[in-house]
């Protein structure tokens, strides 16, 4: 049975790794000539480390489970912040809705065509010799 100290160390290690990837992503974002959010680059850094098996998944898993478990609670401050921009949102309601609808149909089309292409096999007919 794991001790309290080892469980605390696992959570601490997971959050240290996640934050190091976030700060690395922020640093890389400052160096890039294009504007990309540092958090997205940090997630890509973390994904790369995990995919290349440089970083063991077990080291990050406890922190990720904790963040995912309370994800809905973490969106509350963002939602409250968006509410302060209701005047801008109501003024731009039409373009926002149109862009959401068009992008949704575009994503559905691309995913549908990709899935169709991946899941259909060409049947080779046997040759008569």
Question: What can you tell me about this protein's structure?
Answer:
The chain is mostly helical and 129 residues long. It folds into 2 domains: 1-75, no CATH class; 84-119. 78% of the residues lie in helices and 0% in strands. The chain is built from 7 helices and no strands. The chain has helices at 4-31, 38-51, 57-69, 71-74, 76-83, 86-91, 93-119. Helix 1 packs across helix 3 (57-69). The relative contact order is 0.07. The mean pLDDT is 90.
List keywords for this structure.
single chain, 129 residues, mainly alpha, 7 helices, 78% helix, extended
In short:
The chain is mainly α. The chain has 7 helices and no strands.
Q: How is the biggest beta sheet arranged?
A: none
First-to-last CA distance: 68 Å
Low-pLDDT segments, ≥5 res: none
Order of helices and strands: HHHHHHH
The helix count comes to: 7
Q: Quick one: overall form? A: extended
What structural class should be given to the helix and strand makeup?
Answer: mainly alpha
Number of strands: 0
Q: Per DSSP, what share of the residues sits in E-state strands of 2 or more residues?
A: under 5%
Oligomer: single chain
Helix content: over 70%
The Cα radius of gyration reads 22 Å
Overall pLDDT, averaged? 90
**Overall number of structural domains:** 2
